[in-house]
């Protein structure tokens, strides 16, 4: 969807995985180009639409570099300080609150810019986009079709890979404990996919009905900024359960790390903070 790739480029979850200096700097410097390319892969845009896309993306990134990067660096500073002083439950809760707020601030301007582009699509472009999304969704369902144990193992391998990027090599005992913790985290992949498909169908119907840009913006905001508003009751319950278990996961993983692993983590986080500030100074 238009602007959806922004989450992977700009949201803190995305920044957190870019632990290397070059990855973060290069990724951010070329994010606008990547973003435009990704949109044009999903939509057969005409020249005036492409010009509008480039203008909206340029405007957003100028705002984001100036307004959001300082807040990202403050957040990573907070995390590093928490880790140095010894992580406690209250700081995990505070971190979650700040993370959600940064996500909201990142995405709110996106809804208006995305709506401005989407209202200009014709019926053929909307149908073409839906066909591509349906193809992606079928692939996701195939990927999610394994047994519960296979799904959990796949997630465990991803967690392990990302965590070791921040801590260095984990011991056999640490890996086993992380695998046990992973199995306690709810797996909500199919609920997420059901919600994604529902949102796409609703959006396509709104666009074909030629509703106002404000209604399109409201629908996007419900999905990106206030996601519970479009989720099923089961999904809302399971998402809340996941957040609760994730906080426990974070605390227990932190407690099992050695002093050297914790120092390694903090050093990398401080480097990310430094890189974010360097990007911001290039305004």
Describe the structure.
α3 runs parallel beside α14. The protein has 283 residues and is mostly helical. It has one domain. The protein is globular, with a radius of gyration of 20 Å. It is built from 14 helices and no strands.
The whole-number mean of residue pLDDT values reads 86
Total beta-strand segments: 0
Strand content: under 5%
SSE run? HHHHHHHHHHHHHH
**DSSP summary: helix tally:** 14
Distance between the termini: 28 Å
How many strands, what sense, and barrel or not for the largest sheet? none
Structural class: mainly alpha
Residue runs with pLDDT of under 50 for 5 or more positions: 1-22
How does the overall form come out from the CA principal axes? globular
Q: How many whole angstroms does the radius of gyration measure?
A: 20 Å
Estimate nothing, just give the exact number of structural domains: 1
Range of helix content: over 70%
Which terms summarize this structure?
single chain, 283 residues, mainly alpha, 83% helix
